[in-house]
């Protein structure tokens, strides 16, 4: 099996369900977006959510993906940065307990926290205090970090640091890795479109985008966006929510509809788990269609739970579903 190393913001998710979206307005967080916040806003969030039931788990887009890969037995790695505090210790310990090789630099800032608000329709909105995670720099990376891996999976939230991104993909390419990029959020794509394009054309082999991110990047509807993105890389994936997903590699195009889900509790991590399923399929050399089907199994599972830490029983069910799929 091929091996994957992820790189992203090392964040701990603090999830809370909200009865209506008025709190998002008070915090100036557009529903469905990821907004970077400062310590003052984090303190305000803590004040508003005091007394509410919260759920804490390792987070960050790439962190979610590698943890899901580890649960499937893929032995992934993760590069990130945390503070020398309880939150950072929780993040690192949880990764290692999951079976992830955690390559974590540290600094004196507090560790990053993603305050995640889950609306009644399952949509999630992030107020992200990056803290130590934002201090990961190009000079923290070395070529030996990428040795022994076949794929580098990067979350688009890191694109604001151009030097970091360029060094990561260049070191990965020097070690012979394929580079996978998840576009992360439509507002990040809008802000960094030119740099996204530069990276994809020159370095990226696999691109993951949802419908809104693909629109922000290409200005086109999903099918046309898929064609444009696929013309610039080896494999393009456009996820269309309840409508399923579209994948193109060369002349091969796969369209898979989503399975109806009645009890959507939280869409946090749906895209991250989709990517984990797809990458797991690639590491096992499964067909493109099987990769998409495994992606759908994982994404469907995680939206029926609060947060991205699934119980062992759920993972057993996922593995059985994958086994059944492979026998068809």
Automatic annotation (TrEMBL):
Which parts of the sequence belong to the Carbohydrate kinase PfkB domain? 52-313
Gene3D superfamilies recorded: 3.40.1190.20
What is the superkingdom listed in this entry's lineage?
Bacteria
Indicate whether Kinase appears among the record's keywords.
yes
Instruction: Provide this UniProt record's keywords sorted from A to Z.
Output: Kinase, Transferase
Q: Which residues form a coiled coil?
A: none
* Keyword Protein transport part of the UniProt annotation: no
InterPro entries in the record, alphabetically?
A: Carb_kinase_PfkB-like (IPR052700), Carboh/pur_kinase_PfkB_CS (IPR002173), PfkB_dom (IPR011611), Ribokinase-like (IPR029056)
Gene Ontology MF: a single term: kinase activity
Give the family, as the similarity comment puts it: Belongs to the carbohydrate kinase PfkB family.
Q: Which PANTHER family match?
A: CARBOHYDRATE KINASE PFKB DOMAIN-CONTAINING PROTEIN, SUGAR KINASE
- Name used for this protein in its record: Adenosine kinase
Instruction: Please name the source species.
Output: Phocaeicola plebeius
């Amino acid at each position: 099996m091929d091996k994957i190393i992820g790189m992203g913001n090392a964040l701990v998710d603090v999830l809370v369900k909200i009865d209506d979206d008025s709190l998002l307005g008070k915090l100036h967080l557009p529903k469905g977006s990821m907004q970077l916040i400062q310590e003052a806003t984090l303190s305000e969030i803590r004040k508003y959510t005091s007394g509410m039931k919260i759920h804490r788990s390792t987070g960050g887009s790439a962190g979610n993906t590698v943890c899901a890969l580890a649960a499937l037995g893929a032995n992934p790695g993760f590069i990130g940065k945390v503070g020398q505090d309880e939150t950072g210790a929780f993040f690192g310990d949880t990764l290692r307990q999951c079976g992830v090789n955690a390559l974590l630099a540290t600094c004196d800032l507090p560790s990053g926290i993603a305050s995640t608000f889950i609306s009644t329709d399952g949509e999630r909105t992030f107020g992200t205090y990056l803290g130590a995670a934002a201090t990961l720099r190009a000079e923290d990376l070395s070529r030996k970090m990428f040795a022994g891996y076949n794929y580098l999976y990067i979350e688009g939230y890191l694109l604001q640091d151009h030097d970091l991104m360029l060094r990561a993909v260049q070191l990965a390419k020097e070690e012979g890795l394929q580079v996978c990029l998840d576009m992360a959020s439509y507002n990040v794509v809008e802000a960094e479109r030119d740099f996204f394009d530069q990276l994809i054309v020159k370095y990226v082999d696999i691109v993951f985008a949802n419908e809104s991110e693909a629109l922000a990047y290409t200005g086109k509807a999903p099918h046309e966006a898929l064609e444009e993105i696929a013309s610039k890389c080896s494999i393009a994936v456009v996820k269309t929510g309840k409508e399923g997903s579209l994948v193109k590699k060369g002349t091969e195009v796969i369209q898979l509809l989503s399975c109806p889900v009645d009890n959507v509790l939280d869409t946090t991590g749906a895209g991250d788990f989709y990517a984990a399923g797809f990458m797991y399929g690639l590491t096992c050399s499964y067909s493109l269609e099987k990769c998409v089907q495994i992606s759908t199994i994982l994404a469907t599972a995680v939206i029926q739970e609060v947060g991205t830490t699934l119980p062992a029983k759920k993972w057993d069910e996922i593995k059985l579903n994958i086994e059944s799929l492979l026998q068809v």
